[in-house]
Write a structure and sequence with these properties.
Number of strands: 9
Strand content: over 45%
Order of helices and strands: EEEHEEEEEE
Helix content: under 10%
Radius of gyration: 16 Å
Structural class: mainly beta
Shape: flat
Length: 148
């Protein structure tokens, strides 16, 4: 079965989705629309593609603060991996990304957002459950709470 949404198209086979995002889309924005449209409450996602800009986030456990940095250059998405959960009542993606630069070095981190320049292809593996994350104040990040 085929589906189409805001800046994405998908095919579902058994329980797994193959997802393609439109060129010049924002990855997190488009994939968030996809999981909300398909009501995916838990699962895994992997992907590849190419971007012209990416904002990465790094968590400093000492300060419990995030440091964000934006890179504006053409890069290959060699891997995006992550999961889907519910945070504060909202379906949310937690994505990490590895980016290949023109000089064959790599950047990596938590993906805040990236703009596609070329292709973006994903596989979603939904789980038949709900996964809720709650902020752990001691650590400073959202963790699974299986009691919710």
């Amino acid at each position: 079965m085929n589906y189409k949404g805001n800046r994405w198209s998908a095919r579902k086979t058994d329980q797994i989705y193959i997802v393609s995002l439109d060129n010049h889309s924002n990855i997190v924005e488009a994939l968030t629309d996809f999981i909300q449209d398909q009501n995916i409450q838990a699962g895994e996602v992997t992907g590849i593609g190419a971007v012209s800009e990416a904002t990465l986030r790094f968590f400093n456990p000492t300060t419990k603060k995030y440091v964000d940095k934006t890179f504006k250059e053409q890069m290959e998405v060699t891997n995006i991996s992550g999961n889907v959960s519910e945070i504060e009542g909202k379906l949310t993606l937690h994505l990490h990304i590895t980016l290949g630069r023109e000089d064959y070095t790599a950047l990596a981190g938590h993906l805040l957002e990236a703009k596609i320049q070329g292709a973006a292809e994903f596989i979603f593996y939904p789980l038949n459950t709900k996964a809720v994350k709650i902020k752990n104040e001691e650590i400073g990040i959202n963790l699974y709470d299986f009691e919710k």
